Structures are given as C-alpha cells and as structure tokens.
Amino acid sequence: MFRRGCGLEFLLVLCGLELSWSCPRHCICYTAPSTVSCQAHNFLSVPEGIPPYSERIFLQNNKIHRLLRGHFSPTTVTLWIYSNNISYIEPSTFQGFSVLEELDLGDNRHLRSLAAETFHGLGRLHALHLYRCGLSVLPSNIFQGLRNLQYLYLQDNHLEFLQDDIFVDLHNLSHLFLHGNRLWSLHQNTFRGLGALDRLLLHHNQLQWVDRLAFHDLRRLTTLYLFNNSLTELSGDCLALLPSLEYLRLNDNPWECDCKSLSLWDWLKRFRGSTSTVGCVSPAELGGKDLKQLRKEDFPNCSGSESLHQSKTNSLAGTDKVSLKKELHPPQPQPQPPHAHHPHPNEQYPSPPSLIPRPPTSLDGGQSGSSDISPGGEPQQRPGRPRNCTRQRVRGTKGKGLNEVHTLKEMADKEYSSPDFAGGDSKYDHTSLDGSTPRRKHKCQPRTTVRPPSGVQQANNRAAPQRPLLLLCSLLGVFAILTVEHVVR
Predict the structure, then answer these.
(1) pLDDT over threshold 50, residue 333
(2) What's the rounded Cα separation, in Å, for the pair 104 and 119?
C-alpha cells in the first residue's frame, strides 16, 4: 500500500500538480512563482491559510490593523500591504526575510511610528515604500544594513527633522522621495553616504536653511527639487558640490535677491543644466524678477569678497544658527496641501503611455519656469552630458479593482504624488503639446514587466480546470500499479 501511494504521488508530480491546494478564502493563488492575491476584501487581519512558501503576497486595499511575527514566510520576495489601517508592526515581523526585495507599507496613515529594528536583516531589499504613513520621526538606525536599497519612498508624511547619517548605509540608493513633509533644515551630514543617489525630491516642505555642505556626498545626483519651500537664500557653494546635476527646481521660494544671493546668482550663470525661475521677493525694486536674469549692476553695494565671507560665516555658524533660528523663529505650522486623489473603487486608472516615469504637465503648478523644461513637464536632456544611469523600477497598478493580480506598470504616480503635479486628469497625461510623448535621452531601459504566472488556483481549495487532469493522472497511476503487480505475479 505504501508503494502504491508513493507511485501515485510520483505520477502526480510528473503531471505538474501540487499535493497541497491550500489558499485563503476569498483569495486567488498562483503557481510559478507562488503568489497569493487577497486584495480589496475588507480583511481586518492577515488572512489565515497563506501557503508557507509563497513568494508574492498582495494584501493591498484591506483594513488590516496589525502585522505580527509569523504572518508571513521568510521565503517572501514581494509583499504589498499598502492602503490598509496598519497602526502597529511588531519589530520582529520581517526577521529572517533574507530574500525580500520589495516591501510596500505605503498609505497606512495610522502607522505613525516604527521600531528601529523593523527592517534590519533585509539585505536584498531594493524598494521600500513608507509614503503617507503619518510618520513624524524616524529612528536613527532604521535603515541600517539596507545596502541594496535603490528606491525609498518617504513622501507625504509629517517629518520635521532628519537625524545625521540616517541614510549612511544606503550605498546603492538612487531615488529618495521626501516631498510633502515638514522639513525645515538640511544639515551637513543629512545625506552622507548617498554616493549613488540620482534623484532627490524635497519640494513641498518648509525648508528655511540648507547647510553649505549639505550635498557634499551627492556626486552623482542629476535631479534636485527644492521648489515650494521657505528658502530665502542658498549658497552657490552648496550647489557647486553637485557636478552631475542636470535638473534643478527652485521656484516658489521667497528669495531675497540682495548680497546674500550673489553666490547663487554667480553659480546659476555658470550652470549648464535645466532650471526653473528663481523669483525675487525682496528688495522691493527687484520684486517679481528672476534672479537668473539679473545683471551685476543690480547688486550695486555688493562685492565678491563680501558675498564669499557671508557664505563662509553662515557655514561656520552651522548648528548655532539652526538652534538660534529655532528659538527666535520657530517654524509655524502651515496648512498641508490636500492629499492626492484616491479613486473610488469603481474608478479605473488610465494606462500611462510610457514605461519611463516622468513628471506630469506643469510641475510647478502653472509657472513654466525656464525654457529648458519641455511642455510635457520633463526637463530636456542636454547633449554631451554624461547620464547617471540607474535602473528604473516598474511598479504595479495600485487601485481597487477586481480580485486579481494586475498587469504591472510604471511608478510615475508614486514619484510625483504632490497635488501640484496633478490638475484634473493631467496626472496621467504625459504627452507634449504636439501630441508626442517626450522621453529623456540616454535613459536606462525599464525593468522587464513581470507577467502574471500561469496555473490559476481559485479560492476555497477548488481548481476546476485541473480536475480532469487530476482524475486522468490518478487513473493512469492506478492502472500502472495494477499492471506492475500483474506482471510480477
């Protein structure tokens, strides 16, 4: 009897069927790679019965409150739990997940805090999503050991301060999204260690002060967004530390175009990349003018040595200046921009025309800035400049819909989730005025789209399409065993 069972099991394996048919109720399961899709079913907790060797788990758009150790298997490679009600993550939830590559915890607005060791040991993680989580502070070593991380999404939280060296272990990070927070200062070692960073988005914060050496490690940075902050001055020496910079956005700041701005004016005159307008607010006679268009005569009482002395003095002041400003002029709370539109469950996201992420039309909310920015909102590539190629990531569709794994698409809606980037349906309109789709030259090819695996297994432990095959294989197995016994006799 034992031999007969072994023979039947062997034949079933040859037929490509699995002996275990477990799949959580109301979910859909796949094989090769093993996938569990439980999205948009109003689960209040992680459903029971997830196969222990699942590689991809999709739990988005539910009402899950807590993540605890044992909910998932260390074999997990991709885990999406965005758009839930998660308020607590046990520090050991992801302990031992050495093959995890993508973790999406975004749009959990009640999360608010994380233990320092939550992500420790995730050595293969390349994308971490923590956008719209209500986070007001990050522990100093929360990203410790994440040396393969390439994409870090921290936008639309309540962060007011970043501790020194918080990103120091992220040697391969290429995209860092910090827009839509409440940051008001950048220090000398805020971004230390980010030698591979290509894109840094800091718009829609409350930045008042940037240290002269704040960008000293960002030798490969090509894109820097500082628009819509509270900057009145920025040292040209600060930007001179960015030799690969191609796209710079400084509009919608209250710039003071006096002697303090002379070093920035001089740097902008020499910069060969794409920039936005730098609108002057003061002095009154220069109000409304673009700092880039001013002449030397517009700074009548300034000398180069005076400007340089002020720049060095501000840099040496460092921490004292920040603490003094914090005491005398504490940052006033400002009304936050409305959150990006979330579609109704019945709405469908239109498919984007391109796999290369780019900002939608009119990045600055209507102010076109420099002519170096194309009508479609994408800065035009200047010929002859080397491109810091970083692997682009292809994201999956993140909208409520049918209970199935959607075809993967680009991540443009994550990079540019700020309300100013969207105007009606313009969030998904990436075409230029002539109807063509602008593309950045010398851009790396996006990652190949992962197609849904074959062999769909329906919920409730039933796999109707495979029943005839299972019955046939079983009959063949019994027939083979009886034949062998008859021959032996």
Answers:
(1) no
(2) 12
In angstroms, the Cα distances linking 36 to 80, 89, 465 are: 11, 21, 18
Give the pLDDT confidence of 65-99 residue by residue, as tens digits.
999 999 999 999 999 999 999 999 999 999 999 99
Above 80 in pLDDT, residue 332? no
Q: Distance between CA 342 and CA 351 in Å, rounded?
A: 16
Instruction: Let me know whether 174 and 85 are in one domain.
Output: no
Residue 133, pLDDT > 80, answer yes
SS3 for 473-488 is: HHHHHHHHHHHHHHHH
Q: Are strands 408-409 and 395-396 parallel, antiparallel or unpaired?
A: antiparallel
Instruction: Say what the pLDDT of residue 439 is.
Output: 43
Please tell me the distance from the alpha carbon of residue 225 to that of residue 78, in angstroms, as a whole number: 30
User: Measured between alpha carbons, how far is 391 from 411 in angstroms, rounded to an integer?
Assistant: 13
Secondary structure in 3-state letters for 17-48: CCCCCCCCCCCEEECCCCEEECCCCCCCCCCC
Domain encompassing residue 376: 150-319+370-399+408-421
**Same-domain check for residues 182 and 262:** yes
- Tell whether 283 is covered by a domain: yes
Name 128's bridge partners. 103, 152
Same domain, residue pair 185 and 240: yes
445 domain-assigned: no
pLDDT of residue 262: 94
Total domain count, the chain: 2
Residues 286 and 173 in one domain: yes
pLDDT at 470 exceeding the cut of 70: no
pTM score of the predicted model: 0.67
Residue 233: give its domain's CATH number: 3.80.10.10
Residue 199 and residue 228 share a domain: yes
